[in-house]
Design a protein that fits this description.
The protein is an alpha+beta fold and 108 residues long. It has one domain. A hairpin with a 2-residue loop joins strand 4 and strand 5. The longest helix is centred in the N-terminal third of the chain and has 10 residues. It is globular and about 35 Å long. It starts with a strand and ends in a 7-residue tail after the last strand. The mean pLDDT is 94.
Length: 108
């Protein structure tokens, strides 16, 4: 799977605007884990990607860019068609993100 990873998008709307306005190629992504949030948590996460989150801090060393592409978390919600791919690169916040249609995620 490929996705357009944007550095330090502040929220999902900022990501969408940046993805449209910048000439950034989609890169290979490998989803290493999925995290499903409840409605309120997902809404809050999508409103502020740069907020520290303990569940991201716990995975920060595993989500990074390698020679083969991005190692990401897929953050989802049962009531949303959107999944947010996250690479923290050593930080406790969503440093790199990509919004994708949840149906595009590889089967488990």
């Amino acid at each position: 799977m490929k996705a357009t990873m944007i550095r330090k998008a502040s929220n999902i709307e900022d990501w969408r605007e940046s993805a449209k306005s910048r000439d950034i190629d989609a890169e290979a992504v490998n989803i290493i884990a999925a995290i499903e949030l409840d409605d309120n948590e997902f809404k809050n996460f999508c409103a502020d990607f740069l907020e520290y989150r303990i569940w991201l801090d716990e995975c920060k060393e595993k989500t990074l860019h390698t020679g083969q592409g991005w190692q990401c978390l897929a953050v989802t919600n049962g009531n949303s068609d959107t999944a947010v791919l996250v690479a923290c690169e050593g930080f406790g916040y969503a440093r790199y993100t990509a919004a994708v249609n949840k149906a595009e995620l590889p089967a488990k």
